[in-house]
Structures are given as structure tokens and as C-alpha cells.
Amino acid sequence: MGTHRQSTSRVIGVHSLPMAVISLIKEQAAVRGLYRDPLPEVTHAVRTELVTSTTGWFGRGRQRRRAIELLLTADVLVVTDRDPDGPDTDAQVTFHRLQQLEVTRVDGPEPGLELVGTPVGATERGSRLIETDAGPEIARFHRALLEAAEDSRRVDVPASRFPAESEVGTRSPEFS
Questions:
Q1: pLDDT given for residue 174 in this prediction
Q2: Dihedral sign computed on CA atoms, order 16, 18, 24, 26
Q3: 135 lies in a domain?
Q4: Does the CA dihedral 36-39-45-46 come out positive or negative?
Q5: 162 within a domain of the structure (yes/no)
Q6: Phi, psi of 158 (to 5 degrees)
Q7: Does residue 55 register a pLDDT over 80?
Q8: Which of 37, 73, 124, 169 could cross-link with 41 by S-S, CB 3.0 to 4.6 Å?
Q9: More confident residue, 11 or 157
Q10: Residue 28 in domain
Q11: CATH number for the domain including 50?
């Protein structure tokens, strides 16, 4: 009996996300207080698919797949975690402001990216390890993430906290 994990990563575009996940990201962005939809501002995106195989008694095995998408904007990192074979109703999405995020690349037998920070809407700081392969796509994404985080720390107030010019007249009166 044992467990085997295999991860593969590749560059994606926002258009390759399922419509249910796109809707969930837009909905959760509004619920969590981001004034703008982050999807049009994505500069880098990568998907990691993790396959966990277990062997049980008498050679019976089971596979479990997870897909994790990392979408980078100028001031927010969007992380989705879902089952690519199942319904997208179990998908989870978190938003991390780059000003408050610490990112470390983990090397070794299970490489990945470690995220330490407070997700938007959360009350406590936490950490999360996203298992990836050690490929060039992840290296490029990690460099872009570090550069964006450094750039966002130079700005006093992130752009995601201000409504776009086209949205100024559409806000309800209680926000004025």
C-alpha cells in the first residue's frame, strides 16, 4: 500500500477556465470587496494538475485529481482549487493581495510554491503549499509573481480597491 503523487503544470489563458469557475471568481470578487473583476487584468496564468494514486489491498487503486489555477494581476493573486472531473460546484477560490503576500519556491521531492498571507475576506494569516512541477512555466510564473508583489508594495493603495471609471456612476447610494 502506498501513495504516489504526480503534478504537471502548464500556462493557460483565462478563456480556458470553465464558465462555472469564471462565474464563481466574478461572484466571489464582488462578495469579498474587490471593486473590479480581476479576470480582464490577468497578466500571467498557470494550471497545476495533481494526480494522487493510492494502492490498497489486493492491488486495488484509486486516483484523485485536483486542478489548481493561479491567476496573476497587478495587485491580486487569484487561486482556484477544483476537481477537473467533477462538478464545478465544489470549486474554491481565494484572493491574495500582493502587498500582503510572501511567496517562496519550494524545491525538493515535492516542489511547489508556498503562499503566506491573509486572503481577502479572511481574519487570520495562513500558509498554503501549492504543489507544482519544477518546470520552466512555474519558474517564469514565480518570477512574475515576485516582480508584481514588489511593484505592489511601492503603491500606497492597490487599484483593486478603487472602482473603475465606468463603475463610478453605477454604485449604489450607500457607498457614496
A1: 44
A2: positive
A3: yes
A4: positive
A5: no
A6: -65, 150
A7: no
A8: 73
A9: 11
A10: yes
A11: 2.30.29.30
pLDDT at position 176 is 43
DSSP 112-170: EEEEEE--TT-SS-EEEEEE---SHHHHHHHHHHHHHHHHHHTSSS-GGGS--GGGGGG
Q: Which three cell numbers stand for residue 167?
A: 463603475
pLDDT over 90 (residue 44): yes
Q: What is the DSSP letter of 33?
A: T
Structural domain harbouring 144? 2-155
Tally of CB atoms within 10 A around 102: 12
Cell digits of residue 57: 489491498
User: Rounded to two decimals, what is the model's pTM?
Assistant: 0.79
- How many structural domains are present in the chain? 1
Burial of 66 (0-12, 13-18, 19+ CB in 10 A): middle
For the stretch 91-150, pLDDT in tens is 889 999 988 889 888 887 778 888 999 889 888 998 988 888 878 888 899 899 999 888
Q: Which long-range contacts (CB under 8 A, 24 or more apart) does 64-70 make?
A: 68/130, 69/12, 69/17, 69/21, 69/45, 70/45, 70/46, 70/113, 70/130, 70/141, 70/145
d(CA 50, CA 36): 30
Domain for residue 80, yes or no?
A: yes
